[in-house]
Amino acid sequence: RQYGNFRWYWKDPRVLDANAVDFCMRAGALLWLHHHDWMPSAAREKLRPVLELAGKGLTGHKVKPNYSNIAIMNAADLLLLGRALNDPALLEEGRKRLEAIFDYTRRFGIHEYVSPTYTGVDVEGLALIEAYAPDETTRTRAQKLLDFWWTDIALNYFPPAGRLAGAQSRTYDFLFGLGF
Question: The pTM is what?
C-alpha cells in the first residue's frame, strides 16, 4: 500500500504518513526537470529510480478532492513527475486527478476554506500546474482554479490584521492565524 512512498523521518521504522511522497516529489520533480543535465552521473543514477518509485507512490496515494492541499499537491506532482520522466501514464493520472479537483470545487467550493496553513500550499500547487502543464486544457483548468482561490483569498482577507479572516479552517497558529 505504501510502495514508493517515503518515511517522514529517518528514525521512522516505516511509512507513517502517506503524504510524504507528495511533499517530497515537488522538489524531486523540479530538481530533475531543471538540473538533471548537469548532475554528476552517480547522482542521476541514484535519483532516477527514486523518482520512478515515487511515481508509483503518488499513483497509489489516492487522495479525495476535499483534502484540498494534498489532492492538489498530488495532482501537481504527478504532472511534474510525468513531464520530468516523460511518462504518459503519470501525466494522464495527474490530469485525471486535477479534473476531479476541478469538478469537486465547482460543485462544493474550497473544502479547506480560509486556511492560513493550506491556502498557500493550494495556490503554489495550482501555480506549478499552470506553469508546467503538458497541455492547454490542463493549464486552463489550473488557471480557473487559481482564479477561484485568489477570489476566495480576496473575499476573506482582513487588512487590519494582515491575514485571512473567518473561521481559520485548519490553522496551526491559533493565536495569530498567520500562515503561508
Answer: 0.91
Q: What's the per-residue H, E or C state across the chain?
A: CCCCCCCCCCCCCCCCCCCHHHHHHHHHHHHHHHHHHHCCHHHHHHHHHHHHHHHHHHHHCCCCCCCHHHHHHHHHHHHHHHHHHCCHHHHHHHHHHHHHHHHHHHHHCCCCCCCCCCHHHHHHHHHHHHHHCCCHHHHHHHHHHHHHHHHHHHHHEECCCCEECCCCCCCCCCCCCCCC
Going from the C-alpha of 116 to that of each of 102, 112, 113, 176, the distances in angstroms are: 21, 10, 9, 10
**41-87 pLDDT, tens digit each:** 999 999 999 999 999 999 999 999 999 999 999 999 999 999 999 99
Q: Which amino acid is located at 49 in the chain? A: P
Which one, of 169, 179, 173, 178, lies nearest residue 68 by Cα? Answer: 169
C-alpha cell at 23: 511533499
Per-residue pLDDT reduced to its tens digit, 47-60: 999 999 999 999 99
**CA-angle at 98, arms to 26 and 60, nearest 5°:** 65
